[in-house]
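Appendix B, example 12.
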Amino acid sequence: MITPVQLQAKRLFDFSLALLLLPIIVVPLAVFLVGAALDVGHFGWFQQLRVGQHGNLFYMYKIRTLKPGHHRMGFLDNDASFYGRFLRRFKLDELPQLFNVLFGHMSFVGPRPDVPGFADVLAGADRIILKVKPGVTGPATLKYKNEEQLLAMQSDPETYNRTIIWTDKVEINKKYVQNWTFYLDLKYILQSILLK
């Protein structure tokens, strides 16, 4: 299981990498934010309450891909514009999460941060997932990289998400925390880059 010392090392890596990437993404991020603002007719920066380490809530940052009035439930992007779908397709709407990593809300690798009602209600051994910061990517994220398309094929996507996908993600993320190594984090980061 991941130790306090390993958690500190993981945080140091995250902070250092985020600092290195920040100057590289500032200009593209500004362009995408302006594009999103023009597309949806609203400020391009979007934030949503998510469950973080130890069950603490934080605001996760993204680029807005829906027009005001549309409320994305964490899956399905039928209401996204063409530009919004483009951003989501290449995960460009998640660029602002670099600031979440920099501020210590998130890690580059870990369980994806869920809206309240999922990770915060975990019980027993499953709560081991909350020992680590939620991640921009991770093993469950990679397995379900086409989650929106999978859910779109279901007659009851919310029930399918809670009973099938979520339970599988919990098991995947438990194994991640129990067997954490720095090598694994590097592997998941590399796999995420190659999948873009």
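The chain has a mean pLDDT of 92. Residues 4-40 form the longest helix (37 residues).
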